[in-house]
Amino acid sequence: MAPNATQEKTERLLNLVVYLLGHKQGVTRATIRANMKEYQGKSDEAFERGFERDKNDLRDLGIPLIMMASPGGHGDESKYRIDRSDYQLPEISLNTQERAVLVIAARAWEQASLQSTAAEALRKLGVASELVDLPPVSTSLGASEECFPTAYIAVRDRRTVEFAYLKVAAPHAEARRVQPYTLASHRGSWYLIGHDLDRDAIRSFRLSRVTGAMALTGEPGSAPPAPADLTRAAVLEMITPDSTGVNASIRLRKDHGHALRRQATNVRIGGDEWDTVEIDGVDLTRLTAQVCALGPVAIADSPAELRAAVIESLTKVAQVHQ
Question: Residues in domain WYL (predicted)?
């Protein structure tokens, strides 16, 4: 089977790294072109364009490519090399507590594809044997959203994604094109943060609201990296519900939901088995959890985003226990 463009690029970059590591004194562009089959047979323009792209790709990957200017100042005679001492990782030394934390973190993944990735990372660090030495823990970091593996690949490989997204209380899904920056988890839900190309702004997307398949577009590395000011605090602010809260109306069975009744600004006693409580300025996430915890004795009437959040949370619980 012939290699695809991604495989060819990976092999070319790997061969370039190996070639440069083998020449401590550096080599010129002409020497690289003459000795690497990947660059042979190309026109001058095609070689220059491809070599510049490959240099940038290596630097984006964190590989310390060094250009040494020629004594006479001629660019064609400049040499390129990779300092082996900067390229190789130093010896990693972990104490018992640090090794235990890594093992627990690896166990946290419920996603099968990520379980194998985490286990492989432990083997490379030489702590794989400790997977069986620690007692079981209840920590878990699941990702039940069907599009999570695709979103993970998009962030890892910096590839644009296209998907249909259903906003809270929206009548239908909208098409989105996003250059991914990172994934974040908050209260059991995963979010994709990236640059919305159609709205020309950074947005967050809750993966459970993606309808249908998420499609990868573009070559690996074609999407730009995350901006420097997209800090952990900035991401958390994007995916945390508005702290100003919502005004909600909830039906409760008589003699149930006393915690919600105490928070209510108004309680309407019903003639049947249900009362209605009105709560103002409450955090949406916290209220969703309270309503879900009451199960069949609580019904969220409004606002629409509360109803949608309750339905979504209960659906996820049902799926986990199927």
Answer: 150-212
128-139: per-residue pLDDT in tens?
Answer: 555 545 555 545
Tell me which residue range forms the domain holding 194: 148-239
Residue 254 covered by a domain = yes
46, 51, 55, 80, 87 from 28: Cα distances, Å? 17, 12, 13, 6, 20
Peptide bond just before 303 cis, omega within 30 deg? yes
Single-letter code of the amino acid located at 145:
E
Last residue in a domain, options 187, 208, 239:
239
Distances in whole angstroms, Cα of residue 233 to Cα of each of 11, 195, 240: 38, 17, 10
Q: How far apart are CA 218 and CA 216, in angstroms?
A: 7
**C-alpha 311, offset from chain centre:** 25
Tell me which residue has tokens 């020449």.
23
- Report d(CA 83, CA 67) in Å as an integer: 11
Count of structural domains, the chain: 4
Q: In terms of domains, do 155 and 234 share one?
A: yes
Each residue's pLDDT tens digit, 85-131: 888 777 777 787 787 777 777 766 655 556 667 777 777 777 655 55
The last residue of one of the domains, among 35, 68, 87, is 87
